[in-house]
Description:
Elements: E1 7-11, E2 29-30, E3 37-38, E4 46-50, E5 56-61, E6 69-77, E7 87-90, E8 97-104, E9 107-114, E10 117-119, E11 130-136, E12 140-145, E13 150-155, E14 166-169, E15 180-189, H1 195-209
Antiparallel strand pairs: 1-15, 2-5, 3-4, 4-15, 5-14, 6-11, 6-15, 7-8, 7-14, 8-9, 9-10, 11-12, 12-13
Amino acid sequence: MSLNEKVEGWWTLNDDSYRDKSAYDRHGEPSSGSFPIDDSGPIGKSVDFSGKNSNIDTGWVVDLGTDSYTAEVWFNADESQTSNFPTFLSNYGGKGIICGLKEANGAWRIRHFSEGDEVAPELTSFGEWHHYVAVRSQDTISVYLNGGEVKDSRSITPSDVDNSNTMRIGSRPSEAQAFQGSLSEAKIYRKAMTEDEVNRLYQTRIEKHRYV
């Protein structure tokens, strides 16, 4: 099975057009101003987020319901963050999805929150590129870093993650909990990738582009 099946949105974030490469044309728009483009990235260029109250609005009112999904993004986080919950991808507004980081008890963690359920293993390094993948299936929520180098999962009964908010990149829809650092290759699929597929996705990207 192709890794690129059932893609709901694919924002490469390698220029200031924030275009969606999926079939749905969910092109992003900055909520205020524009974002600097960084020449360094895991695949090409990347978008630099300042940690201030702003994000890229994809225009997609999330319609995943209780379906399985996978969210993927490459991130390079600054060690100094303006929020304890810096966000990569989110439609959260009372309910929904949050993909990002969190600080708890003096430790930073990668975070996948899916309407009441959360997994958050520890993040051990800043200032370098990491591959983040969040997966929800019909009975499990998971998060993976660098193809499974760090991972965590738990059993769930999936809840509806839809609301009236659009999916945002770089903070929550309210512009709170903004991420500080660079993001590239944000992608959402309407399917749950297996651990093997997550690893294949990571390995395919780093072998093709030789970034590590």
